[in-house]
Each structure stands twice: as C-alpha cells, then as structure tokens.
Amino acid sequence: MILWLTWRNLWRNPRRTVITAASVVFAVVLAVFMQSLQQGTFDRLVRNVVGFHSGYAQVHARGYWDEPVIDNAFPANDSLSAAIRAVAGVRGLVPRIECYALALAGALTRGCRVTGILPAAEDAMTRLASRVVRCSYLRDGSPSVLLAAGPAMRLGIDVGDTLVLLGQGYHGGIAAGRYPVAGIAAFRAPQLDAAMVYLTLEGARTFLGADGLLTSLAVDIGDPARLGSIMAALAPVVDDRYELMTWQEMMPEIDQHIRSDAIGFYIWTGVLYLIIAFGIFSTLLMMTAERRQEFGMLVAIGMRRGRVAAMLVAESLLISLTGVLAGMALSVPLVLYVERHPIRFGGEGARAFEQWGFEPLMPTSADPAIFLRQSAIVLAIAVVTGSYPAWKAMRIDPVTDMRR
Amino acid sequence: MRVKAWTQGRDVTLILVTAPAKDKGIVFLRRGREVWNWIPAIERNIKLPPSMMGQSWIGTDFTNDDLVKEASIVDDYEHRLEGEDSVGGRRCHRIRLTPKPEASVVWGRLVMWVDQRDLLMLRTEYYDEAGGLANTLLASDVRMLGGRLLPGRVEMVPADKKGHRTVMTYQDLVFDPPLPPWFFTTQQMSRVQ
Amino acid sequence: MNTNQRDAARVAWRNIWRNRSRSLVIVASVGIGLWAGIFLIAFYNGMIRQRIRSAIDREVSHLQVHHPRFSDDHDLRYHLGDAGAILGRLRSDPGVLVAAPRIVAHGMVSTAAGSAGVVINGVDPALEARLTLLSAKVAEGAYFTAGGRQEVIVGLRLARKLRLALHRKLVLTVSDRQGSLSSAAFRVAGIYRTPNTPYDEANLFIRLPDAAALCAMADSVNELAVLLHRDEAADSLAAVLSAAFPTAEVKAWKDLAPEMQVLVATTGSMLYVFMGVILLALGFGIVNTMLMAVLERTREIGMLLALGMSRPRVFGMVLLETFLLVMAGCPAGIAAALATVALTGRQGIDFSVFSRALESFGWETRVHPQLASGDLRRIVLLVILTALVAALLPARRAFRLRPADAMRK
Q: Residue C15: helix, strand or coil by DSSP?
C-alpha cells in the first residue's frame, strides 16, 4: 500500500521527482569520476615509477637488499620462476644480475651499475628498447653492451667503440671485460647517478664469474589495484631462502609522497560530499516546503503523522536508489572513455613529466570498487538528507500548514 | 692461485699472478699508498680508486687496502710489551699495539706474538674498538727460505665469515736479486714475467 | 530606474523574503562553494609548499654553485676558484638567508666491519645547521661538540650497516686534489636520521677544515649552497649569479631535485579537474534549486505575465533574485574560508593521525594552507560566474512560460 502510494506521489509531479533524482544521479557521477580520476592518475604514476627499473615487486636471496653484493646472488630456479608466473595477476618476470663496476674508456673512468638482462623480458616491463636512441637494442647472445646516454657522453664513447668494465666478481675474483657498444639509450631521469650499463644475462654472468646466478627477479603485474592480493598469493611460493619485497618497501620515499598526496585528496573528496549533500538537501527542502499544504491536508483527513513520514521516507529511498543506480550506469561509460582517452595536461608540470619519459596523462581507473564505494556513500548521503522531509512531516500542524 | 712477488724496502711491491689460467697475467703494483692493477683480459692498467680499495684482493680475505698497510704497523701504533706466551712451540713476546689517535687505522687494538729467538711474527690478532676479534693472522712452518729463517705459511682467518680462510705458502724466496731501476713502474707491469 | 524596473526589483526582493528557506539554501550553497573553493586552493598551496619545503630545507637548498664539470665527474680538481667572491656577493644580497661553503668528496669509509662508498660532506657546523637543519636531524649523540676534533656525523642506515656506534672510529679515504690516496681517522660524534634512507646511507658530515686537510684543498671549496627567504626568488638570483660569475655553474632547486617537479605536477593538474568538478556540483545545486523555485511559482509568474510584465523583465527578475542571493552568500563564504585558512594555516593540518605508515617526523606531515595573492579574487569570480550561469536555465524557463498554461495549474 505504501509502495503504491509512494509511486503515485512521485509521478504526480514528475518534474520535481526528476529534479530531485537528477541531483542524486549527478552526485554519483561526480563522485565516481573524481575518485576514479585520482586513483587512475596515481596508479599511472606508480606504474611509470616502478616500470622504470624496480618492477612492482622483487624476489632476492634473503639478505640481498641490506647488502646488495654479488656474493648474495642466488641460483636461477626454474620451479620458483614457474610458480611465480602461475600466480594470477602476474604479468611478467624479469630476471637480472646486477653489480657496481668501473667503466673505462680512454683515460676516463666512471662508476656504473651493470645489469645483466634478458632483452625481451626486460623490454616487456621497462620498455627499455623504446629508450634506445642510437643503433640497436641488445639481442640474446650478443656480446655487446647497451649504455646510457649520459655516461656515454662523459666517457666520450659512441656506438662501435669499446667499453671496458672492471669490478669485483663472485667470491671476490676480479671481474674484467671488454665490450663493443651496441646501442645508446636515453634515460632522461637525471637522478640516476650511477651510469646504467646493460649486458645480456649470460654476458654479465661471464663478467662476474657467476654462472647460473641472479641477483633479483622483478615482478610485473597487470592490475595495480590487486597488488595486495598478488603479494599474498606470492608469499607462500617464495620460501625462506628468498625475500619478497614490494616497491613500497624498496622505494619508501616515493611511497610516502604518494600516500600523503592521497590523504590530501580525501579532504577534497570530503568537500565534494559536503556540496553534494547540500545540493540534494536543497531540492528536498524546497520540495517539502512546496508540499506543506498537501501534508497538512493528509493529516487533517486523518492520516497519522507517522504514516506520512513513512511515506516520505519511502519516496526518498526510492528516488535515492533509482538515482544511484542511474548514476552508476551513467558513470561507467564516462570512466571507460577517460580511461582510454586520458586527460592530457600541459604547462610546467607536463614538461617535468616528459623529462622523465612519462606521458603527462591523467587516466581514470575502472576499478569496480570505486563505483560501489562512491555509490554507497552518495546513497548514504541521500538517505540521510532524505530523512528531513519525514522529520518535517512529523511536526505538521494541519491548521497552519493548510493555509497558503 | 700462484703469484710471483717482488718487494723493495717497505714501500714498493710488484705482484704477478701466474695461476689459475683465468687470472694469469694480472699484475699489482704498489708504490707508497697507491695501487695499480694491470689486467691482460682488458689490456688496461688501472689505478685503484678509493672505492675499490675496500674490496677483496683477488678473492682473498685481504683487501686491496691491506697491500698498502705494511708500514703502518710501526708508525701508526704505540707498542707495549705485555708478556710471554708459547705459539707453535716457540716462546714469544706478546705485544699490544694501540693505534695512535691520529692514525687512520680501523682497528681498536692489535695483539702480536713475536718469536723471541728469531724475531718472527707468528700471530697477530685484530680487534675492533668494541673489543671483538675481527681477524687473526697466523704464521707457521718456519724454515729456511732464500737463506733466511722465515715462516713458510701465512694464514688469515676472518672471525665473522665462517669457514673462510686465506692461506699463503711461500714456495721460494730470493733475496737481493738484481733488478733494473725501472722495474717497479707502471710501464713494466704489462711486460713482467 | 523607471517604474517597471523598480517593480521588478521589488517583486524580486519580496520573493526572496517570501520563501526564506529556499533563499537560505541558495545563499548557503554559494557560501559553501566559496568556502570549499578557497580552502582547497589554500590547501593545495600548502601541500605543494610542504613538498618543496622538505626538499629545499632539508636537502638541496634553493641554489647550489659548483664548477661546471663537477656534476659529471666528482673529481676534486673541479673546485670553485672564486668561491670567496661568490660567497661575498651572496651574503650581501638581502634575499639570502644562509650561504654556506662545503667540500664534497666521494670516497670510502672503512671500519673493522667493512667498507662502503660514501659522499663526504665537509661543512661549517653553524651554517649547516641553519641551511639544512642538520643539527635537528641528529637522533643520537651530539652535533659537532665545541672543541671536538676529527668528528663525523653519520646516517643511521650507514651506522647500522657498518656496525658503528657513538665514539667509534672510522677511516675515510679519498683521492685528493692531486690524485693521491689520502686517509684520516674520525670518531662518530652523532648519528642523524632523515626519512630518505638512501641519503642517510650515502652521506656523512665532517668539519670543513678537516675535509680540507683530507682532500688537500686548504684554500678552496667545491660547493656553495644557498637558502633564500622566498622560494620564488631562486630562479632570478640564479640568473644574476650566473651572469656575474660565468665560470661557475649555478643550479636552482628545480634542477637539483627534478623528481619533485613530477610529484608537484601530478597534484597540480588534478587540482584543476577537481575544482571543475566542485564548481559543477555547485552549479548543479543552484540550477536545481532555482528550477524548483520557478516551477513552484509557475502560477504567480503566469499572473505577472498576464498582468503585462514583459518576458525579458521576468527573465531579468529571476536573474536578479539569483544574483542577490549569490551576493548575499559571498561574504559569509569568504569570511568562513579566510577564517579556516587562517586557523589551519597557523596550526597546520597534521597527517600523521590519518596514516600510521607515515614516518613520525613531525614537521614532515603537517600541511599549512595558505593563499597566494590573486587566488581569492579568482575563486570568488569563478564561483559567482558559475552561479550566474547556473541561474540562466531557470531564468530561461521562466522566460518561456505561457501564461495560459501557467494559470491553469
């Protein structure tokens, strides 16, 4: 009975209903869009940062992170690699062997960071091949070296010249080798103070006298929102001989920056909710004022105030639910569109981004949790503000209220 | 690993690695505080920068820095005779070496046992400042080498790396061989046999 | 104003008072919108300043001066020949808060437990304390005691790695200005800590004269770091200095900490979008409210039209109503915003209560909202503009009303 009355009431004045519902719809769309834009942009930033080198997570021999020396390398383990790849959400596994060494050319020497890579796997995660500006990327089995542009310039060498590497190998032996330069890669990030030098995995192993060893396995994942669950799934696969670290543990300063930025956005989102609440409230306020006469009449002809209130609550619930559902439905194509066509920003910020090789884009995130969470919040706001008409109804005085 | 080494006084040393094949031909030249390294595989002669001085010397428990530290035993420490002990069946003086305040040595103190009769250093213990034993240097197998009585076996045992030790055995020693004056130079490094 | 106009105005005014709650809602919407907009801009400014502050105040300072080849190759050969002159010039500039000379050398630290590559910073303790608050970062021990000799301050992470404790000895080795190896022993006077652990691990601090002795650089330095009163002055001072001393390389903080730019850029670009979203929400709220109002008064408007009031006048009347309400909302909104900004600006908003994971370095987690000049004006204009645009739709609705239909309701 109440439901039927509610429905009829709502459609008696369609414009009013539509306007009220529209404010809920709009609220949902805005809240979802804002949240998904924020999450999408930060996810993209994290992807850019971890895609640079570290990957979302890494597996090392236990103790390697505290003492990153070649003697803490571990033997490549096919079953471990297979087990990691088998975890849902893992997009790629990048084996590496890394060390510090001296790079020499002519009379000049520079400290450098030597990384032995599997060219294809490395490129899949870090897009290393796309950074090559001169000549070519490394190929499997190549005896050559890929050098970062900065140190190449400082050492005064170019493609075709020979680079000499000297360092301390596995078990302390001398590591020395000469390598033709196959290509030069541009790393615009000026923060990389040690020169990046890439050898093939086998080439680096020969250099270090470290057959069959790796210093790290970098894990690439497809959907950053699932990092937590993926890590939980990986933990049992990686036994005590190894340590599994997330990018937050490996780069805590960046994690901290992103977290504190995120907190700032909670405040902004809070303000948005306030404005939304106010928007919905204002329509309800006016609707109540407008229907004052109607309520007065209902009470006068004998309807209990409680019933009137209940009816209004039902109306408000119905409008809120419909509004939220419609809002969700509308926001889905919007979010999907901006995900595929991110907002491009310009100005000084864009230049900073490009300097690092990042694109200055703001995509949205299509994480379903966002839709649900924001809709739930807006629904809560709508329901709470919707209790105002009911509250007003409880205080109806038929005599005064029926008067215009 | 086999090496040939030439030493002149306290300041100059030339070391040539003759075995294993992987490292054969590597030469170290130490003059005073500087160390050069010739590596045939890359045909380069490198003066070791500070960052490499702390690294292990060709895989042993000695560091590159240890190559230059010889003289410091006398100059950088205060010496005090503490007593007597028996080491390897020989009566030894026990000497305590305390680093001078300005000396650039990392040790808190050293304890050295020197044979009373032949004045051979038979044992040295290296302690950090907290009093923990860091390294032990042992000399044994005293015999005639090159006409002089010297320990034929020197062993370095680090305290914190379980099971590691570096053993040097002297096969042959020649004193005062005729050497040209340009022998201990960087140019010579690539030619030494 | 002629009679008709006056009538319209009077009707508008009466309308406002006749439906107090509706009017109040619009006034409040505008007020809240203004408060939100102003506060957010101030908050954003505060966030950016905090980011920049942490980089400038604690690490890179506003400007650094080196030999042009020093950044590439940290050889001690590349020192500042005219350091004295540059320092003099800097100290005479009123915009400069602190100008400190340093000797920076890449070398090795050895202890009984091992060795590691480090950056040795030879500093003037008093100046450095003002420049990077180094003295405040010391967590254990003391900061360069008076009369102390060969003292060193190391980072916590390095101390852990090499098993260093207070008063323990370490040996620093560098390749000095002539290229020879030089070593000296130092004792740990204090252990410092920053949120940036790679920095802690790589940097240690000794007195400038000790560094000069170690590096055979008795008469010069290779780095000058400058802290200014105002961040904005950095670029212009850098330009002036470069022109005055062409043989030196002057870099501003933006180049010294480029990763800062990336993080600032992300936040900045999102600000525009968020402001847009909030203005949209505000605008929509106003449209809704006024539309409801117009629909509610359909009959009355119809009557006015029938009585001869021209359509444009009706349009104008609705617009005027909205405008008056918007204007009424402004003072309250602006006042509230300024009050909030002033209050939080002084106290700062502490984030550590929101996240346990953030390091508990008090000053790092506070944001102090503040308004830059022009911000207030811009936001007020934007909000008013939004409100008026929002008012157009209901006003148009009123414009298109047909008296016959209206009267029938």
A: helix
